[in-house]
Amino acid sequence: MSIVVVIDSADGTIKKGSREAVSYATQMGGDVIALALGDAPENELASLGKNGASKVITVAGEFHSIQEAATAVAEVMNNVGADTLVLAQSAKASAIGGRVAVKQGASMASNVVALPDTANGFSVKTSIFSGKAFANVSLSKEKKILVVSKNVVDIKEDGGDAVVEAGSVNIPDADKNITVTGQEKASGDVLLTDADIVVSAGRGLKGPENWGMIEDLAKALGAATGCSKPVSDMDWRPHSEHVGQTGIKVAPTLYIAIGISGAIQHLAGVNSSKHIVVINTDEEALFFKAADYGIVGDAFEIIPQLTEAIKAL
Ligand SMILES: Cc1cc2nc3c(=O)[nH]c(=O)nc-3n(C[C@H](O)[C@H](O)[C@H](O)COP(=O)(O)OP(=O)(O)OC[C@H]3O[C@@H](n4cnc5c(N)ncnc54)[C@H](O)[C@@H]3O)c2cc1C
Predict the structure, then answer these.
(1) What integer pLDDT is reported at residue 18 of this predicted model?
(2) 187 lies in a domain?
(3) Residue of 249, 264, 280 to test ligand 1 pocket, by largest number of atoms within 8 Å of CB
(4) pTM, full prediction
(5) β-strands 293-296, 275-280: how paired?
(6) Atom of ligand 1 nearest to the CA of 268
(7) Is the pLDDT of residue 189 over 80?
(8) Of all helices (H) and strands (E), which one includes residue 34?
């Protein structure tokens, strides 16, 4: 089996989800080739060898449209004779995967939450209905595309450096159909979708003037800040921080929910988190049922003490 894994990077750093995707592919067995579209530092790309990639192919350029990226990925798969493609879950990854599936005549599954079961054919467990249920999906075509959720496997760290090679692809002009005229970065020091730790708060915080303590805690932890929907609807926080079914879906190693009740629509955006800590005055709050650790108490007393304790560490 030859597996291509599409790599995503930001500001010269490979995203954690991509390292997980390479580690996932490595556990499937076979030769794992990482594919980086666009620029990233060579030493950063070579370090994908630690996660299990034998080789990294870089294709220079800017891949703004999904069509361009899909054409490049399909061409590289053909060039290296790959029968499997793995991508880290994101809206963009699902869109690329779908188009590559058409080009390659491949079977595809997204929101994959476990390694494939190959005892009888090839099937994968996937998360459906915003994480409220699971489906086992059988992939019958010879070529397969898996879009893998975050936190499914631990990142493998014990390999050596991978060989980095420049690849080239022919993108038809028809696929180059997007021109980026400007870019605006989301606020916050750490991007919510990539954060390893998220400190999120809800209506229990009473008003926007009380977010200083949330930002202090996030800063002490190197975390991104998130919020519940009503908080962003009331303009206490920007919409880019709204977490949940109708907002951003996050999958950090640690999600700290402060003064958030735990409505199902909020949980739909956080239930792939590895560990959840809930702080709420109401011991009956729904969120405690999804929590690994809970503190029943007043956020206004707990958060400043927690921040000081973390700073002391
Ligand atoms: C179609 C639809 C889509 C939706 N999508 C989303 C979504 O994507 N994301 C989302 O978040 N919501 C979404 N909602 C809204 C969701 O149903 C809830 O209404 C919302 O999540 C509640 O936000 P909250 O927990 O901040 O507020 P509340 O429900 O008001 O809860 C506040 C919590 O704070 C606690 N609290 C109060 N004071 C303190 C204190 N001093 N210290 C600690 N805790 C305290 C309370 O006990 C309570 O549990 C959606 C709703 C619908 C109908």
Answers:
(1) 96
(2) no
(3) 280
(4) 0.83
(5) parallel
(6) 8
(7) no
(8) strand 31-37
Are residues 119 and 212 part of one domain? no
Give the model's confidence band at 275: pLDDT under 50 very low, under 70 low, under 90 confident, else very high.
Answer: very high
Pocket test for ligand 1, best of 249, 266, 301 (most atoms within 8 A of CB): 266
205 in the same domain as 67: no
Strand 224-227 vs strand 197-201: parallel, antiparallel, or unpaired? parallel
* Atom in ligand 1 nearest the alpha carbon of residue 231: 26
* 146 and 232 inside one domain: no
Residue type, 143: K
CB 63 within 8 A of CB 82: no
Same domain for 131 and 45, yes or no, is: yes
Question: Domain residues for 105?
Answer: 2-175
Same domain, 213 and 252: yes
* Mean pLDDT (whole number) for 251-262: 96
262: Cα within 13 Å, side-chain hemisphere: 22
